[in-house]
Backbone:
């Protein structure tokens, strides 16, 4: 064989090797692209799951907060009710004391009042 045929043979072999390498790179890139698509799908699923989990946690926390707020409101209402009951008892006691004083004054001055009314009526 001459140098030209050897050169052509070497070029053909090298060209075939380069083509084989390019084909391998393209196949690797296709596999990588498929892997990326698969990962994107998995990430999307994970986002959905995370969103569902977050919403579930939000619902649980919201329910806990509602229960805490209800208990706190009940405590405030009960404290207000106790205070109102105490205040009303004081007012009732004051009213009874004043009523007793008025009744005592009426009893003390009743005879005198009757005398005044009788004398006024008789003078007329």
Residues:
């Amino acid at each position: 064989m001459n140098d030209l045929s050897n050169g052509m043979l070497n070029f053909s072999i090298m060209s075939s090797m380069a083509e084989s390498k390019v084909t391998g790179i393209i196949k690797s890139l296709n596999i990588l692209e498929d892997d990326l698509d698969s990962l994107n799908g998995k990430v999307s699923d994970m986002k959905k799951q995370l969103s569902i989990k977050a919403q579930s946690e939000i619902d649980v926390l919201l329910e806990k907060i509602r229960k805490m707020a209800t208990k706190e409101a009940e405590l405030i209402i009960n404290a207000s009710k106790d205070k109102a009951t105490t205040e009303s008892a004081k007012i009732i006691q004051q009213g009874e004391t004043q009523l007793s004083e008025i009744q005592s004054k009426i009893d003390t001055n009743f005879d005198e009042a009757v005398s005044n009314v009788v004398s006024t009526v008789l003078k007329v």
In short: The chain is about 100% helix and 0% strand. The radius of gyration is 52 Å. Residues 3-123 form the longest helix (121 residues). The chain has a mean pLDDT of 87.
